[in-house]
Design a protein that fits this description.
The protein is mainly α and about 850 residues long. Helix content is about 60%, strand content about 5%. The chain has a two-stranded antiparallel ribbon. Strands 3-4 form a two-stranded antiparallel ribbon. A two-stranded antiparallel sheet has the order 5-6. A hairpin with a 7-residue loop joins β3 and β4. α5 runs parallel beside α7 and α29 crosses α30. The longest helix is centred in the last third of the chain and has 31 residues. It is globular.
Length: about 850
């Protein structure tokens, strides 16, 4: 066997092995390349299939180990581990339970942010020694990376994105009007802007905002001619200082921006002004009103200037608001034509380059640059752009604290960009994953990142709670009849506390799903104990009203899991939030046992007789053969489950995936939906007595709820306000579950009350097990898109209609008493 070699250098990887049977050599070579490609060491499970692939191909007739290695390299380069930055992290006790990126993940984040490439061997070595687990370790490596020439490459990529140089690359010019706009000039313009920023950040290390009005430029001869500067007889770039009285100043005076923000035959003051507002001041311009075509009509006077045409255009009420924000800034650049060449005349008229920024007047580019530099938002805007580039996402409300801190530090340093980068990459928000909410629906995106959940697993996490509720309803019903609700709820609450503690320490999907199931068992008695107790404390005619008030009060927990918990989760971390929830659960269980009584004081307490197995089974048979029960269960399967699937599980992910709302914004919307649900419960309470029918109340609620879901299914990504209104209205009108529960209670005699109400609840629990998981499969199949949620809303609407088609055959009962303990076989309840 020959010598094995792996030439995995900084610039690439060469793979050499002796023959197709040399698995040790192939493994070494693949591991070397894989570590560079995946930015971490490969596991044995990752390496072995690649080695098998290489040696299998190499062993084919006419093949060689080189060909086999080519297949292995191809597989590596197509792996998601190469194509994406995988950032899962792990809970860190030292950081309050927040998820902390490991050292290899930090190496990848650092190299991507500062170099726009993969980590070098020194950075991977530091990660292998866990040297990036602390802020000091990260800062030390960041200083080394920024002193390396690769950092200029990373900054050039950032400049291209920040200043939208794609506009320059895509720019087309009329060759008759602008014959000097060549491909070499276009390339020179891009190079110059990159060199200006790189010089300021890494060489001069001066005030970054001075780039808005300074007189420094980098030119070759072709660009010098455009700028009206003397040539040097060289294609090389050189640093020059523009004359003090030059009308050209700052990066807005660079050919890259001026030419990139113009039209083929003329300048574009509106386009240039919009760019300044959005890129340099971080003030987004709203889109044109519906029906308004953003295009200037042909001029009646062919010699009219752009200022004249736009001033006339702004007289239109539908155009003036937005153009007033853009045009006054764009006019400041009118001394420069469509390729960035200075001019004093436009169509024979003197150029008027006066303008203003929110009342601060200027005349020409040089003065405008100074106004922009002194604007209060310029520094924070640049800081925000750097932060978003590093985090590879938009900033959200939860980032406000770190953004304010970075902006203050940036100003205190004299606006030094290199110091900003060092501070940012060593900050907690760059090293730790952020979490904002405790409710599954609100923090679903964060749970997904923290625990590595797929959409399917997220759906099962929502369903596990209700599956556990479903699974123990029969024994809970028997415990109600035997021991009463008071003791049953208090004892099972201990399991709810254990489940909350488990969630607080969860590390993967299994932990979350299993812990949610334990919590479900612990809460199995809580919901139906209300029905059980109310049926004893209130007359049948007022049962739905009583249940509505109790259920409305119980849903305060839904509200607490939205915005109010935002502060707790943001300041303490979602894990600590669940620790607090465990403590609250214990206190509530103690209070329930101490305060609640199973019967009103005027009803004698009859000790429950221990039933034999035969009697238990006969009681269950009596419950499940009760006339009119099955149509009721069909409706109850879909009713509350549909509403909670939206509100409690998938509402938050929908708002995040489709509208990109941050945690606080999602919490606010879910808070409104939760309030609507409570108001709906209260509104439905007395409706059965007003209409003298529970069936009419339920079918009306189904019809309206299904229509609202259908609207969400049909409308392609409606405006956020429209979506919020539809979701909130849906939660109000779909809150008719208490009416079904009250209707179900009338079917059973008092001796079977516990088993009867839990039988009704089983349908609801089964629906809550199936529907969230079903939506998870739909969302995963359609890729977390607007279409995915539209399909899901359509399926949920169809489910409500299906349940109603069976429920319509049920017996109506508005004020009937519970069935008596008479012999079976006679009708129970009042016929419809």
């Amino acid at each position: 066997m020959g010598v094995c070699r792996s030439d995995a250098g900084e610039g690439g990887a060469g793979l050499r092995a002796h023959d197709g049977t040399d698995t040790t050599c192939a493994s070494q070579a693949i591991s070397a390349l894989g570590q560079r490609a995946y930015r971490r060491p490969l596991t044995t499970d990752e390496t072995n299939p690649l080695v098998t692939l290489a040696t299998t191909v190499a062993g084919q007739p006419g093949s060689t180990i080189t060909i086999g290695m080519q297949y292995a390299v191809s597989a590596i380069l197509q792996s998601p581990n190469f194509l994406y930055r995988v950032e899962l992290g792990a809970p860190s006790a030292a950081d309050g339970g927040r998820t902390k990126y490991n050292s290899y993940e930090m190496a990848s984040r650092l190299a991507s942010t500062l170099w726009n490439t993969v980590p070098d061997s020194m950075l991977l070595d530091a990660a292998g020694k866990d040297g990036l687990s602390t802020a000091d370790g990260v800062k030390a490596e960041a200083q080394r990376l920024m002193a390396d020439p690769h950092a200029q490459q990373g900054m050039a990529a950032f400049v291209d994105d920040l200043y939208a140089l794609r506009n320059l690359r895509d720019a087309q010019r009329d060759p008759t009007l602008f014959p000097t706009f060549t491909e070499t000039l276009r390339s020179a313009m891009q190079t110059e802007l990159e060199m200006r920023v790189i010089d300021m950040v890494f060489t001069t290390r001066g005030d970054y905002l001075s780039l808005l009005d300074d007189k420094t430029a980098f030119v070759n001869d072709e660009l010098a001619m455009l700028y009206g500067l003397p040539t040097a007889g060289s294609t090389a770039f050189r640093k020059v200082t523009l004359p003090a009285d030059s009308p050209r100043a700052g990066i807005l005076g660079s050919g890259a921006i001026l030419a990139g923000l113009a039209l083929p035959e003329r300048t574009g003051p509106t386009k240039r002004g919009k760019y300044i507002r959005e890129t340099l001041l971080c003030e987004p311009i709203p889109p044109p009103p519906a029906g308004v075509i953003p295009q200037l009509p042909p001029p009646s006077d062919p010699t009219a200037t752009m200022r004249t045409r736009l001033t006339l255009h702004r007289t239109s009420p539908s155009c003036t608001a937005c153009h007033a924000l853009m045009d006054p800034l764009g006019f400041g650049l009118e001394n420069f034509d469509a390729i960035g060449k200075y001019r004093t005349l436009e169509n024979g008229h003197p150029v008027d380059a006066t303008g203003n920024l929110d009342g601060a007047a200027f005349d020409g580019l040089a003065q405008m640059g100074t106004v922009l530099r002194s604007a209060a938002v310029s520094g924070p805007c640049f800081v925000g752009k750097v932060y978003m580039n590093a985090q590879s996402r938009e900033a959200v409300q939860a980032d406000a604290t770190i953004l304010n801190s970075l902006a203050s530090g940036f100003a205190a340093s004299g606006n030094k960009a290199d110091q900003l980068l060092l501070t940012m990459v060593s900050s907690d928000p760059f090293r730790l994953s952020q979490f904002y909410r405790v409710s599954n629906s609100v923090i679903a995106p964060e749970l997904t990142r923290d625990l590595g959940l797929s959409a399917r697993q997220l759906g099962w996490a929502g369903s596990a709670f209700f599956f556990a509720l479903f699974a123990v309803q029969i024994p809970v019903g028997m415990w109600f009849d035997r021991y009463g609700a008071r003791r049953t709820v208090a004892v099972l609450s201990i399991l709810a506390m254990v489940g909350a503690l488990w969630i607080a320490t969860a590390v993967d999907a299994f932990d979350l799903i299993a812990a949610r199931a334990v919590v479900g068992v612990g809460c199995a008695a809580s919901f139906m104990s209300v029905v059980f107790l109310c049926s004893r404390w209130f007359p049948p005619a007022r049962l739905a009203t009583a249940l509505s008030w109790v259920f409305a009060a119980s849903n305060i927990g839904t509200l607490a899991a939205a915005t109010p918990l935002a502060w707790i989760a943001a300041t303490m971390g979602w894990r600590n939030g669940f620790l607090g929830l465990a403590a609250v659960t214990v206190l509530v269980a103690v209070a329930f046992y101490a305060i609640v009584r199973d019967r009103p004081p005027d009803q004698p307490l009859t000790p429950a007789r221990r039933e034999s197995i035969r009697e238990i089974m006969k009681g269950l048979l009596d419950v499940w053969t009760t006339p009119g029960l099955l149509p009721l269960l069909a409706m109850h399967f879909f009713a509350y489950a549909t509403m909670l699937t939206v509100l409690g599980v998938w509402g938050g992910p929908y708002l995040y995936d489709v509208y990109k709302l941050d945690g606080v914004e999602r919490g606010n919307v879910l808070l409104a939906m939760g309030l609507a649900q409570i108001l709906g419960i209260l509104a439905y309470g007395p409706m059965d007595r007003l209409l003298r029918s529970r069936k009419k109340v339920v079918l009306s609620g189904v019809a309206i709820s299904a229509l609202l879901l259908a609207a969400l299914a049909v409308l392609p990504q409606p405006a956020l306000g429209v979506a919020v209104v539809l979701l909130t209205a849906f939660c109000f009108f779909c809150a008719f579950g208490t009416v079904i529960v009250a209707q179900g209670r009338t079917l059973f005699p008092d001796r079977l009350a516990g088993r009867g109400v839990t039988a009704v609840n089983m349908a609801q629990c089964l629906g809550l097990t199936v529907l969230p998981a079903l939506v998870g499969y739909i969302v995963e199949a359609f890729g977390n898109s607007d279409l995915a949620y539209r399909v899901a809303f359509g399926v949920l609407a169809a489910g409500l209609v299906l349940g109603a088609s069976v429920y319509v055959r049920s017996r109506d009962s508005a004020t009937s008493s519970p069935a008596s303990d008479r012999p079976r076989g006679r009708r129970v309840g009042r016929p419809a």
